[in-house]
Structures are given as C-alpha cells and as structure tokens.
Design brief:
The structure holds 3 protein chains of 3 kinds. By secondary structure, chain A is mostly beta strands. Chain A has a single domain (3-83), classed as Folate-binding superfamily (Folate-binding fold, 2-Layer Sandwich). Chain A has one helix spanning 36-44; strands at 3-6, 10-13, 18-22, 52-58, 66-72, 78-83. Chain B has 4 helices and 10 strands. Chain B has a 5-stranded antiparallel sheet. In chain B, strand 8 (137-142) and strand 9 form a beta hairpin. Chain B is an alpha+beta fold. Among the domains of chain C are: 1-158, Ubiquitin-like (UB roll), CATH 3.10.20.440; 165-291 and 425-497, FAD/NAD(P)-binding domain, CATH 3.50.50; 295-421, FAD/NAD(P)-binding domain (3-Layer(bba) Sandwich); 512-609, Arc Repressor Mutant, subunit A; 904-1001, Aminomethyltransferase beta-barrel domains (Elongation Factor Tu (Ef-tu), domain 3), CATH 2.40.30. Helices cover 22% and strands 28% of the residues of chain C. Chain C contains 24 helices and 50 strands. In chain C, strands 8, 9, 12, 13, 14, 15 and 28 form a 7-stranded mixed sheet that branches. In chain C, strands 41-42-43-40-34-44 form a 6-stranded mixed sheet. A 6-stranded antiparallel sheet of chain C has the order 46-47-48-45-50-49. In chain C, helix 5 runs parallel beside helix 11 (467-484), helix 7 (309-319) runs parallel beside helix 8 (336-345) and helix 12 (531-539) packs across helix 14. Classes of the chains: A mainly beta, B alpha+beta, C alpha+beta. Chains B and C meet through strand 2, strand 6 and helix 4 of B and strand 8, strand 15 and strand 39 of C.
C-alpha cells in the first residue's frame, strides 16, 4: 500500500485513493470538429511508460479532489504530486512524460 | 477428532462504555467558491476553516472542512430551517450549493482511553495526537465503509457514517472491543 | 521424569509441569517448553517423515528455520493446524500433537518404500514420468502423488476462530530483539521516537537467551535484558510485540506483522482473536533479524539426532535439555565450538570435535576455549556417513590431507551429531524491500547492500559479529533510524562480554571420496533434495538458479530454504566453476514463515464480510417473511411470499396487484445526486444525452448517460426542483460511479461551470406506489397537496407532507401504470412505508419485490442498464435514441456516435422476442440464430437479455438484442437449446399497453 501525497490533505494511504489513468489527456473543446483519428487518439490511446509517468489520482475517500502525480512505474516512488490545472514541475525525464 | 474438546474461558461482558450514539442533528452539505465560503461563515456564524482537514465550532454549530470547496455543517435540528433560510438570504450573490443531508448519515462517538486502539482496527490513518490533533477532521475509511472522522478531544472522536453503513461500523468496533482487557 | 533434562538452568518453569501427547503417547514437559524441547527432554528425536522419501526425520533447529519437525496440533475437529514447526509450538497443558506424512505410524511408515525406490525418483521424476495419457494426470497421477508426498492435512471444517487486523504507525519499527534489536529500540525510544519492537519468539532477547555467560555493561545479560525491556515497556511511545513475525516488507515501508495471541494457551480466552494482523507503517525500519546457522552437507546428514549446533545450545541453555549424552560436533565454524562447551557444561560427553575447515584458518575464540577445556579436536576432517535407523548411533569421520586425499575414516559412537556450517544473515526483509544483497567473502554469505526503502539492517542480520559489536551496530542503527525520522538521537553504547565465536563457515558440501557418494547427502531437508538432484539438474542443462530451484524444489515449501539455500548455491557454484555471487540468488518470498489465511480475512467473514446495506422497509419485510437478494451491498426484497406461495405465485400475485389495484415497492436504493448551481442545466446538458434547458421547474424527465465512447452507462429520472437545482437519480449499482464521473468532468474538464454535486442517496427513503388505485391510496395520506391528474400530471414533482413527514412526491412510473414515488427523509422511511401499507389495505395494496418489478418493466419494454445493455450499446441500439437532445452542440458520447461503426444497420438492436409456444420461458443469456438446425459453431446474431412469464399477458415475454433486429419484426428466429431450437417471433419491445394509456390512470 503506497503513501500518496494529496496536494490538499498531505500524505495519506493508497486505500483512500482511486487511480485516474494517464494525466494531461485533453478532451477536444469541440469534439464535432475532431477527426475520427483525433477522437480515437483522445478516447483510446494511452501510454504505458516504464519510468516516470504522469498520472491522475483522486483522493476519493478524503477531499475528493482529482490531482496529478509523477510516479516511477519501476519503483512505485512518487516524484511529485500537484493540483489539477497546475503545470507539472520540470523534471529531467528524458521525455518519458 | 471428535474426542478433543476445546477449553474456553467463560464469556465476559464486553465493555461498551466507549460508544455513544448522539441524538440526530441537522447536517448540511455546503459547497462553493472562496467568496461563498467567506459569506457562509457569516451566515452560519462559524468561520469555515480554510486549513485542510480542520473543524471549527462556535457554540452548538460546527463546520468541518471536507474538501477545498466542501464543508459539512452541523447544528441542532431545531435550527435547520433557519440556517437554510439564512443562506438563501445572505448568499444570493454567491454561487454555491447547500443540501440537507441530515438523514443521510448518523453520528457515533468513540471515546475513552481505548478510542484510538478501537479506531486503528479499521482506519488506516495515523491517529497519534501529533499527526491527528484535536480539531482535525477528514473523510477516510473504516474497513470497507467511508466515514468522516473528527477528533473532538484527546480521547474523543466523532464519526459521521452513512445510514446503511452504521450497523457495519458499529459491529466491527464492537468486535474489536472484545480484544480490550476486561 | 525425563532423562535428558538438566538438573538446573534454562528458562523453563520446573514448578509447572504440563501434560501433553504426541502421536497418542503421553509426555510431561514444563511451562516455557516448546513441543520440540519437551520431546527432546523425553529423549524423542524422531518427529516426522520426509516429504518425498518418507525418511525418518528429527529436529534440526530450534526456531522458525526448522525444516523437518512439521507437526499437526489438534484442539478439536475444526481447530486442526498442520505444518507447525515443533520448535515454535509452545507447550500448554493438554496439548495434542501428531506427526505427519506417515502411515500407519511414525516408527513404521509404509511410504518409506519410496526411499528404497529412490534411485527411480530423481529431480524432475514426476514431470518426466507421468506425462501420458494426459487425462490421467488429474484423475490418477496427481491425486496419488499428492497423497504420497504430502505435508499435513488441512482441516475440512470452517475455522471457528476469528482473526483481528489493525493499522499501526511508528517512527521506528525494530524487527528482532536480540542484542542489536534491543540496543536499537533502546536508543530510538530514548530519542522520543514512537517505537514498535517485535519478535517472533515468545520471549524477547534473541541470541541472548541462548548464552550462559554473557554480560552487558558488567551485568548478566539476562538482567540487562530484563532492565532494558522493563524500561521500554514503561515508555508509552513504545509497543512491544512478542510472538509476532514480521512476515513481509511492502512498498513505502509498510510491514506486515502476524501476532499469535491464543495458540499457546490451554484455555482460549472468550472473544479474543486467535491471531492479529498488524499493518505497520514505519517511517524507518531496523532489521535486526539475526542469522541462521547452516547445516553441513554429508552422507546421512538427515538422520534423527543430527542437528544444528546452535539448536543444541538453545535446548541446553534456554530449555535445560540435553539433545544427547554423547555428542560429536562437526563444524566448519568457530561458533560451533560453543555448543560443545555448553553441552559439556550440561553434563554431556563430547566424543569428538571434527573441524572440516581447510587448512590455514585462524582459530577463533570458541575453538581456543574448547581446546583449553580439553576437548579433542580433529582438524581437516570430513564426514563419510552416519549410522543408526530411527536415531543416529554413530558417525564416520575421515581426514583430508593437503592433496585432498581422504582417509578411510573411523566411526565414533554417539547419540547426537552437532553440525555447524557457519551462519547466514537473515536478509529476507531487506531483500523483500528490493534492497540489494552483496556477497561477503570473509563471512561466506550474502549481507544487505544499499537499502531501497527507509530501512537499516543491524547486528547479525547485517553480518556483524561479537556481542559488543552487535550492541554497537544496533544502537547505531537505532540512532540513524530515529534521526531519519526527525528525532535527535545518539547511540547508547554498551560493552558486552561473551565467548564471541565467529560466524564464518564453509558453505557447500563436505569433501567425499567420490563427488556423489552412494548415501544421500541432503541439501534441503524439507524438500528431500540431495546433491545428486542438484547435480542432475545441472547435467540436464539447468543453469539459472531459479530454474534449478523449480526443477529440484530446493528452497521451496514452508521453510523457504532458510537452512538450505546457501549450501545449494555453493554446490551449484562448485559444480559449475562459478563463484556464489555469480550463481545468484532466488527470490526471498514473503511470508517469512507461513501465516494463516485467517489474518488476511480478518473480520471480513459472515455478516461482516461486506457492509450489509438495508433499506427502511428491511425489518418490516423480515417480519413478513420477505425474500431478499443482494444488489451490490444492498439487500433488496425479491418477493413477499404469502403462505403456501412459491416465488412464481408470489410475483404473479404482486404483478396482478399493480396492474389491477395498487402495489408498493421500496426504491430507496436508487442513487440520488443533487446537482446545484447556476450552471446546473448547462452541466446536465453536457453530461446526459437529453435536453434539460426545456425542463420546467417541478417537472422530471428520463435521462440517459453515455461515456465518451458513446455507449450507455447509466439512466434515471431527473427532476428540476428549482432553476438551479436538479434531483438526479441513478441506477442502484451506478450511484457511486456516476457521482465520480460528474466530479471528474466538473473538476477537470468544465471547471468554468458554477455547479456542485452532493450525494443524497441515503437522505431519501423512496416508496414507489404503482397501479390504477395508487392515487386513491396517497390521497388518504396527503392532505396539503393536490395530487389529482390535473394538478399533478405524469412526470411532475411536488412537495407536501405524508404521515407527518416532509415529502417530495414524484409522479413517475416504472410499471406502465399510474404511479408515484414518495420520497421522505430517511428516518421517516419506516413509518411512511407502514402508513402507506395500512392506507392501501382497503385498496388491495401488495408490497412487491424486484422480481415483479422486473416483469412489470419488461412488459413495457423499459430497459435495465446493465441487464439489457452491456457496455457496447448505443442509445439507438437500446431503443432510447428518442431521448437525445438533437439540437445540443455536444454531450458526452455524442462525437463517438458519429463514428461509422456506430451507425451500421447490423448493430445489435433491442427487440421483443415472443416464443411461438407461449408457455416456453427462454433462458436469459441464450443465443439467437437465424435458422433452425444449425450445428456448432452456429452463426449467432443476438442473445436474450430479459425473459419472464407475464401474468398480465398469460404468456412468456423476452427482450433481446439481435443484429439489425428492428428490420426483422415479424420474422421467426431461433434460440438453440440442448436438444431443440425454440422458435421466436421478433416484435416491438413493448408488450403491454403499447399506446401507453394506463400511465394516466
């Protein structure tokens, strides 16, 4: 059970969180203008990164907020968590994010 | 193997003095932006905490921070309608949501020297006073039930539990009470 | 009473004798004994038969490393625990223990024929031999192999004990309470840190418990230990857990502890759990888990009476038991000599010490002491074999000269052979935490490398030797851990005086005249793995240690190779001309020692397995014999049988009441979400497919929710309570996920909207009152609200009072009849339910359950999301496309519906299916095909989603999805079932009142 730093509530046990998939997947502002290829990219295609990965979590059994995290998928160590809408801090990730 | 009999000590009555079920109160779920939160503090008469996971109490009314835009307001049942009307009057200019959840959940008080021990059987948070001080409140889990946990005293916790989960939470705490020294 | 008990000494309570039985024979031991020490005190070494060859086996160790003495302890028919190590079973009065894996008796075991046949049973024998015919594996080979080669028998009755779980947090968790662990805990506690000290043994002290003469700071070690523990016990920031095994190291410093609470008690304390799982979140962990002595590998090393030297010390010093009266010590390690000294002190005769180390080693302190005591030492020795049947009676020792030539050897009479191959640090937890291991050449063993988590290995587990050094290493680790946890700590140093035999040894196999001697030399006792097996595996091409492990089973089962791994590695290394670190290591799997399943289940069994969510009508229903079903965590009433009724009779009656009079149904479990804010309508326009801008205050509408993939996700009636306030209902099972999805879009996609949501599922108790006389029933209870057809048309909402409770009344129907849903705050739910029932009696009201509800809605073609839809259905597929707000620029799922695949005419579409024989009720889930008489594989064009007998229509009805189904109305299709094809005619999904007139009463 990981410890996850909620940007609002602080360090809390993984039990309280739900995982929200890859971060920074933006829904097209006007989906009707999206081509089938663009829509497919948005709807279905996700990264499966080995190493630093930007992902969403929700503090479901806490403050209820969605937020973003950068986690090393090889060690399960979190580099940072930050509030939804905020820019991720610069990390020398070699483009893994 | 039927010839073997298990020796068991005589059952002892379980001490239930740690448990208290308070009378029903008014509960309002308040959600809104910063300006609405400030206005709500005036309307409710309790400054809604802006620090995460903290509760504030003035007289018989309490405001519990549950999220950056979400509070649980607790007050005597007799004041419920007046509070709702007050919010309608005072917060007209501030977009917000006020929803009566008085019947959605009930309260449970766990108190006494074994309160932390009892809660640690199902709550994954660190309840040491240094990490969960008096006045701290948060939604969390008690085994498979969501609860709102609020420390109102060194040895006193106020739990808010949704109606249909109350039986489960109470039964689990009672099971754990069997482990306490008689 | 016993022949091998010393006259004094040890930590057993000689004033408290305890009766126990082993294999039906009565024995007496003392309080403080283990089953192993008590049996040894009675001269019993034979305690089990080996896994594969059924060889007689005795005690090897004195703790959790014991590979041989696996015992079943029986309290009653259900409390029968197999595979317990005799070395860890604490004696209690009346203990009943049995040996395992033998028939008819331990002394004469028919299965031992496997030993005579052993040349036929090499590594991989089963895999190679029992290959054909394939079907025989499950029917014949596997059951018989398992029966012959088994561990203990698991009980077949449910476990009557209960198990507790808890979370704990601390700054420093110290695992192990030997000198290093105690020093670590003392230093960490002194800094003010919250400390948990756990030890798998009943008493704290670790190796200090086994030492006769050690002192700490000039005090007897036992006194220092007692003082230290007393001080720790008094500190409110310290928790001491004995009988508690740290069995697993999980990510982010979560440690699993298994605490045994009642297994050592003669009387089970009422109400107490048998065991307790601790999930400890420690900021820092000190791993002071000690080290385990290795056996030596030589022919006949598994004979009862051949055991570890350290175990002999433990039995002598801790339990006052001599493992034998005439001992030969075979050692490759200085510390082994201490056992000879301790046995001599207890009155045993030391026949010989055979040192197997190669020439050139430096004599350590223990060897010097043994020589000074006049014990006979033969250097450069090896063991050629042992004698005896059920107990060792002699050992054949030879000498190895400088060129490696081995003498013919000579036999020494003895009743016990002690062996010491050196010590292996217990690096399990460090390794489980993903910490690397490094090979220490001077020690001849792996020691912890850089930690991966916040952990600090200390003491013998860290490869440290000598009492003062152990105390220093522990204190330093304790100080480092406390400092890392944010405390100001300084290591509290001690001076220890002990014999301090050194731990380095000779891993591998003792020299033999031929590489593989004719008699078996066991590497892994528990799995009956010999040097021959390991050599065979390598000859057959297995190089990776992980492969060799699986092929030979070395290092598996309950002891997980605690005593065998390093010897196996050393042998593999020698055979393949590699160094041990080049061979590598197998994974240190958790649990460190076996745990019960019970601790992982905890309280989650029976009524506490999950929360049982009950509605306000629950108790009323129970009192009337209602039958429930589980819907998620909810209990919902399926039907209300009256005397003599089966389910079909009850549901037919309930359906008739709704169609002809009035019925009442508890709909409280439906999810409810209050959506509030000035942009509430905008939000719902984007979220649901429907148009909400046109919905007036006091009106409601049936809403459909898709995901962005365009498939139906949920549905429910949504009412507009005010311009800026909507009451959304969801399916029972969808409440939480719809709420989460709303939060997701509000928080991360449409942050500009002024909208907030609140779950009100449990705020409201809901009674659906349905049927032509429903209005009349409610009119007797509602006086402050006009509920006439004119004032309250279909799909309207109004507030009033019912039976003294505030009410939100919906005119809504899921039955096709005139209907209402009465919402009251939940604590009024029971009273209002009863009031409606009583008021309805003169009108023939019938409470109805989910079965009748399903029939009523299916007669009307109303879908159930999740039953008639399956996550691949569009609104058009589900025949609810009419609900789409055509003018909206966007809603969730809209774009996906534009994909060509979503518009194909051959998509599966919801239709009605009527069997040609009206009395045949189809199976839900049955397939639909176009023509009769097809053979497998058939061409399946659809399937049945809902199927019932309709009392109103006096025939069966079914809903199903069929490819291009709406174009097939009137055609005959087939539902293939075993032995026949059932002919069905495609129809509209609305079977009853197709014009929808009854809804108006």
């Amino acid at each position: 059970m990981l410890i996850i730093h909620c940007p609002y509530c602080g360090d809390r046990p993984e039990l309280e969180f739900s995982h929200g998939g890859q971060a920074q997947v933006v829904r097209p502002a006007d989906p009707s203008k999206a081509t089938d290829a663009e829509w497919t990219q948005f709807l279905y295609l996700r990264k499966n990164t080995r190493g630093l990965f930007a992902e969403r979590w929700r503090h479901l059994r806490g403050c209820g907020r969605f937020f973003n995290a950068i986690r090393d998928t090889t060690t399960d160590q979190f580099v940072v968590t930050y509030r939804a809408g905020e820019q991720p801090p610069a990390i020398g990730s070699g483009g893994a994010l | 193997m039927g010839n073997h009999a298990v020796k068991t000590t005589a059952p002892v009555a379980v001490d239930m003095s740690w448990l208290e079920t308070p009378a029903s109160t008014a509960r309002l779920s308040f959600r809104g932006n910063a300006a609405a939160i400030a206005a709500a503090s005036t309307a409710f008469g309790v400054p809604l905490p802006t620090e995460a996971c903290r509760a504030a109490t003035v007289g018989t009314r309490s405001a519990l921070w549950l999220g950056p835009d979400e509070y649980l307001l607790i007050a005597p049942e007799s004041e419920r309608l007046a509070i709702i009307q007050g919010f309608v009057r005072d917060l007209a200019a501030h977009p917000h949501s006020l929803v009566d959840v008085s019947h959605r959940q009930n309260a449970l008080i766990v108190k006494g020297p074994h309160a932390v021990w009892l809660l640690e059987s199902g709550c994954p948070l660190d309840l040491d006073l240094s990490r969960f001080p008096v006045g701290m409140c948060t939604r969390t889990l008690f085994e498979k039930s969501e609860i709102t946990l609020w420390r109102t005293g060194t040895d006193t916790f106020h739990l808010e539990v949704w109606r249909s989960f109350m039986e489960y939470v109470t039964a689990l705490l009672t099971e754990t009470a069997h482990e306490l020294p008689a | 009473m016993s022949t091998f008990r010393t006259t004094k000494g040890g930590r057993v309570d000689r004033a408290h004798p305890l009766q126990f039985t082993f294999d039906g024979k009565a024995y007496v031991g003392f309080a403080g004994d283990t089953l192993a020490s008590a049996l040894l005190a009675n001269g019993v070494h034979l305690m089990g038969r080996s896994f594969k060859y059924h060889r007689p086996r005795g005690i090897v160790g004195a703790g959790s490393e014991e590979p041989n003495a696996l015992i079943t302890v029986i309290r009653d028919a259900a409390r029968r625990t197999p595979n317990l190590r005799a070395t860890q079973i604490e004696l209690y009065d009346g203990l009943v223990a049995e040996s395992q894996n033998r028939w008819p008796s331990l002394q004469f075991d028919a299965g031992a024929v496997a030993g005579w046949l052993s040349p036929l049973l090499p590594a991989g024998f089963y895999n190679k031999t029992f290959m054909w015919p394939r079907a025989a594996w499950h029917a014949l080979y596997e059951p018989n192999i398992r029966a012959a080669a088994g561990l203990g028998i698991a009980p077949s009755l449910p476990d009557p004990d209960h198990y507790a779980q808890r979370f704990a947090h601390c700054d420093v968790l110290v695992v192990g309470s030997g000198p290093a662990g105690l020093a670590a805990a003392k230093t960490a506690a002194a800094s003010g840190a919250r400390v948990i000290l756990c030890d798998e043994q009943p008493a704290f002290g670790g190796s200090l418990l086994d030492d006769r003469n050690a002192t700490v700071n000039g005090q007897a070690a036992s006194a220092w230990m007692a003082d230290t523990l007393a001080a720790l016990a008094k500190n409110p920031r310290v928790r001491l857990l004995s009988r508690t095994t740290a069995f697993g190291y999980f990510p982010h410093n979560l440690i699993g502890l298994s605490e045994r609470i009642t297994d050592h008690l003669a009387e089970l304390p009422s109400g107490m759990p048998r065991e307790r799982l601790w999930q400890v979140r420690a900021r820092e962990v000190v791993i002071a888990a000690g080290a385990i002595e290795r056996p030596l590998v030589f022919p006949g090393n598994d004979r009862p009476g051949v055991l570890l030297a350290s175990a002999a010390r433990t039995y002598a010093n801790r339990y006052g038991v001599l493992v034998g009266r005439r001992a030969v010590l075979v050692t490759g390690c200085d510390a082994g000599y201490e056992a000879a000294l301790d046995l001599m002190a207890g009155g045993a005769h030391i026949e010989l010490i055979a040192d197997v180390r190669p020439p050139g080693y430096v004599a350590g302190p223990a060897e010097k002491a043994a020589r000074a005591a006049g014990l006979r030492v033969e250097q450069q020795s090896t063991v050629l074999g042992t004698q005896g049947t059920l107990r060792v009676s002699g050992v054949k020792i030879a000498s190895v000269d400088a060129s490696g030539q081995i003498s013919r050897g000579r036999s020494y009479d003895c009743d016990v052979v002690l062996m010491s191959g050196g010590y292996t640090p217990s690096v399990h937890l460090h390794s489980q935490s993903r910490g690397k291991l490094v090979f220490d050449d001077s020690l001849g063993a792996f020691i912890p490398g850089k930690p991966a988590e916040h952990s600090h290995s200390a003491g013998a587990a860290n490869g440290v030797q000598g009492l003062t050094a152990l105390l220093r290493d522990g204190a330093t680790a304790g100080a480092n851990a406390a400092a890392a946890a944010g405390f100001t700590a300084s290591a509290i140093m001690h001076t220890g005086v002990a014999l301090d035999g050194t731990m380095a040894g000779v891993p591998g196999v003792l020299s033999q005249p031929t590489v593989l001697p004719p008699a078996k030399a066991f590497v892994d006792f528990q799995n009956d793995v010999t040097t021959r097996d390991l050599a065979l595996a390598q000859r057959e091409g297995f190089e990776s240690v992980e492969h060799i492990k699986r092929y030979t089973t070395t290092g598996m089962a309950t002891d997980q190779g605690k005593t065998s791994n390093l010897n196996a590695l050393a042998f593999i290394a020698e055979q393949s001309n590699r160094r041990i670190p080049e061979v590598g290591l197998t994974t240190f799997r958790m649990p460190y020692t076996p745990t019960t399943f019970g601790i992982f289940a905890g309280h989650a069994r029976g009524d506490l397995f999950d929360p049982v969510r009950k509605t306000p009508s629950h108790d009323w229903t129970v009192a009337r014999g209602g039958v429930f079903e589980d819907v998620g965590m909810w209990k919902r009433t399926r039907y209300f049988p009256q005397a003599g009724e089966d389910m079909k009779a009850a549901m037919d009656r309930e359906c008739r009441a709704v169609r002809h009079a009035v019925g009442m149904f508890d709909a409280s479990t439906l999810g409810k979400i209050e959506v509030v804010g000035k942009d509430a309508a905008t939000f719902l326009n984007r979220f649901y497919i429907n148009n909400w801008s046109t919905l007036g205050v006091g009106r409601s509408r049936y809403g459909i929710l898709l995901r962005d993939d365009g498939f139906v996700y949920d549905d429910g009636v949504i009412a507009r309570l005010a311009e800026d306030r909507f009451h959304v209902t969801t399916t029972t099972g969808g409440a939480a996920r719809v709420f989460a999805m709303m939060e997701d879009y509000l928080q991360t996609e449409w942050t500009e909207l002024s909208v907030w949501i609140t779950s009100t599922t449990e705020q409201w108790s809901v009674v659906a009152v349905q049927g032509p006389r429903s209005r009349e029933v409610l009119q007797t209870l509602v006086s402050d609200l006009d509920i006439s057809a004119e004032a309250m048309p279909h799909m309207s909402v109004a507030n009033g009072t019912i039976a003294g409770a505030p009410m939100m009344l919906f005119r809504v129907s899921f039955s096709g009849e005139l209907g209402f849903e009465v919402n009251v705050p939940a604590r009024h739910g029971t009273a209002v339910w009863e009031a409606i029932y009583n008021a309805g009696k003169p009108f023939g009201i019938a409470p109805y359950g989910t079965e009748a509800m399903h029939v009523l809605r299916a007669e009307k073609g109303y879908i159930i999301v999740g039953q008639d839809t399956d996550g691949t259905m569009t609104p058009d597929d589900a025949a609810v496309a009419w609900a789409i707000g055509k003018t909206k620029p966007d809603f969730i799922g809209k774009r996906a519906l534009e994909r060509p695949a979503m518009k194909r005419l051959d998509r599966k579409q919801l239709v009605g299916l009527l069997t040609v024989d009206p009395q045949t009720v189809l199976e839900e889930g049955a397939q639909v095909v176009a023509t009769a008489g097809q053979t497998v594989p058939m061409t399946m064009i659809g399937h049945i989603t809902s199927s019932y007998y309709s009392a109103a229509l006096k025939r069966s009805i079914a809903l199903g999805v069929v490819a291009g189904g709406r174009a097939l109305v009137g055609q005959t299709l087939y539902v293939p079932m075993p032995g026949r094809d059932i002919a069905v005619v495609v129809t509209s999904p609305v079977f009853y009142d197709p014009k929808g007139e009854r809804i108006n009463g």
